[in-house]
């Protein structure tokens, strides 16, 4: 029988997708159907055996293909890439139709001129220095307007970045906020939410966001809760003390009455091998007590960040220029080395750094391209010097712009967490650098191909729900994330038998296979495996 399209739904579809295996995002069993699209929305669904759909527009034969809602990347670092690269095949080719930006507490709005210059330098390793971007905005609303005005490859939502807010209100100082400064931060967060942000992020191993205490974060989360947004923390440790760090975020948001979404939620480093069940027990207990919690992960074991992020927080107080000054001073640099290699810096999650696990993935200065793809330890051996000498030189001469892969994850933890009922997918994809993490180009096909088809960790229907309806629910999007009549036609057609990530650690910019068609707002952004010239993505804003 029909799924209930209104009168006239069959009277001339703009596009009819025929004979697809519909995996509708609910987690329920798939079914064969024709799907009609008109004016950017799904207007008719006719299951096998129903009267056929008629259309006056285009027809697409989907035999052998699965049709699902577009994938939602819950943790993306495309804040400048969407403006810089209209093609943006890194995400469009994966079937991503919506990215959530403003992650890890650091992004480009809200800012003043001073803060903008500082944050550009601080996250050069994530997004480049922005010298090719016209920063014609200062507010969250201004940034979202810029995305809409320019036109972008995929849709984008935004989180107010708490570290940037703190930088804006009180600089880079490691101290508690004054009442006036806290009021200013509350105001900036509220303004960002009113202008369309869906929540607030933090990077609590990144400066200056990590200088905020729990009481300060709780007050900001109270603001987020008033707007029915969510808090997305990169919490204080994924290594030593990881479980305690998760507990801190759960307790903090419960106190504030705020929804919680845990960013790239995993248990890394040797101290956490096999400890994913401990995390999930903590979350299950909180969920049973009424907490509103979700999380995202990427289906890989190594992490990716900047080399400067490994420093102890005290070495980063005052901002980028202060960091450089400390690194130039011999006595202070030796203190930094001792903290990193012997004590365990908070920037490295409280674990003494293992230089043979730190692989350089990108540099800003082309003089250092020879470092890319090698660990700091390997480069140091080749140069006949200590690893810290190599790392210090790179930090100074690359002006804090180097990115790294950190090989500290555990496959059993990755698999265990991705099975959880509140799990969603997030690439954490940094697109900068000569050798980026393959998750930037491969997260979603890696889930569908390797973990579903090859390993059977999730069923295909379950996995699609993790990547579509579940994140749409977290974002409070009433008309995305499901194949339903009336919903926006953000759709992916893929071949379950062949879909796979093309990207690897050796060839990280290779596009996936088995995803021939992607539609956003009813328009093809990928057609027959090739990027079209459509720029139909728009900002997706929080609604009252």
TrEMBL record:
Signal peptide: none
Pfam family, one: Amidohydro_3
GO cellular component terms, A-Z: cytosol
Domain Amidohydrolase: 59-525
GO MF annotations, alphabetized: hydrolase activity, acting on carbon-nitrogen (but not peptide) bonds, in cyclic amides
Protein name (record): N-acyl-D-amino-acid deacylase
Species whose genome carries this gene: Streptomyces tsukubensis
């Amino acid at each position: 029988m029909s799924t209930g399209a209104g009168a006239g739904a069959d009277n001339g579809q703009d596009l009819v997708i025929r004979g697809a295996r519909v995996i509708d995002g609910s987690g329920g069993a798939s079914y064969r159907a024709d799907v009609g699209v008109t004016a950017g929305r799904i207007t008719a669904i006719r299951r096998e055996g129903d009267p056929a759909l008629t259309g006056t527009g285009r027809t697409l034969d989907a035999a052998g293909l699965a049709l699902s809602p577009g994938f939602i990347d819950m943790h993306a670092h495309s804040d400048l890439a969407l403006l810089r690269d209209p093609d943006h095949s890194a995400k469009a080719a994966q079937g991503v139709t919506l990215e959530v930006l403003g992650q890890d507490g650091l992004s480009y709005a809200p800012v003043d001129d001073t803060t903008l210059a500082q944050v550009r330098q601080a996250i050069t390793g994530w997004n480049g220095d922005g010298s090719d971007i016209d920063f014609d905005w200062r507010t969250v609303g201004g940034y979202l307007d810029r995305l809409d005005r320019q036109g972008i490859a995929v849709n984008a939502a935004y989180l107010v970045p708490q570290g940037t807010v703190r930088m804006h209100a009180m600089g880079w100082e490691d101290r508690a906020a004054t009442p006036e400064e806290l009021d200013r931060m509350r105001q900036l967060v509220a303004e960002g939410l009113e202008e369309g942000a869906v929540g607030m992020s933090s990077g609590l191993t990144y400066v200056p966001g990590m200088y905020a205490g729990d009481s300060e974060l709780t007050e900001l989360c109270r603001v987020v809760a008033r707007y029915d947004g969510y808090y997305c923390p990169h919490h204080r440790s994924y290594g030593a003390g990881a479980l305690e760090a998760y507990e801190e975020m759960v307790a903090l948001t419960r106190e504030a009455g705020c929804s919680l979404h845990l960013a790239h939620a995993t248990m890394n480093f040797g101290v956490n091998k096999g400890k994913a069940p401990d995390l999930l027990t903590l979350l299950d207990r909180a969920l049973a007590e009424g907490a509103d919690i979700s999380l995202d992960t990427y289906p890989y074991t190594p992490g990716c960040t900047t080399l400067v992020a490994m420093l102890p927080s005290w070495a980063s107080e005052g901002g980028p220029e202060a960091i450089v000054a400390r690194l130039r001073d011999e006595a202070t640099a030796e203190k930094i080395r001792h903290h990193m290699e012997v004590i365990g810096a908070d920037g490295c999650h409280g674990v003494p750094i293992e230089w043979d696990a730190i692989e350089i993935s990108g540099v800003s200065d082309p003089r250092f391209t020879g470092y890319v793809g090698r660990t700091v330890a390997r480069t140091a051996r080749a140069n006949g010097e200590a690893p810290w000498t190599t790392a210090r030189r790179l930090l100074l001469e690359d002006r804090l712009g180097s990115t790294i892969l950190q090989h500290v994850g555990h496959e059993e933890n990755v698999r265990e967490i991705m099975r959880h009922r509140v799990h969603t997918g997030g690439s954490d994809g940094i697109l900068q650098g000569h050798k980026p993490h393959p998750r930037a180009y491969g997260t979603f096909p890696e889930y569908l191909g390797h973990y579903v088809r090859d390993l059977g960790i999730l069923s295909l229907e379950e996995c699609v729900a993790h990547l579509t309806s579940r994140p749409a629910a977290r974002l409070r999007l009433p008309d995305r994330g499901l194949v339903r009549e009336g919903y926006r036609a953000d759709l992916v057609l893929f071949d379950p038998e062949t879909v796979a990530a093309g990207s690897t650690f050796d060839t990280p910019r290779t596009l996936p296979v088995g995803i021939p068609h992607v539609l956003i707002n009813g328009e093809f952004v990928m057609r027959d495996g090739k990027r079209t010239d459509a720029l139909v993505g728009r900002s997706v804003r929080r609604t009252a």
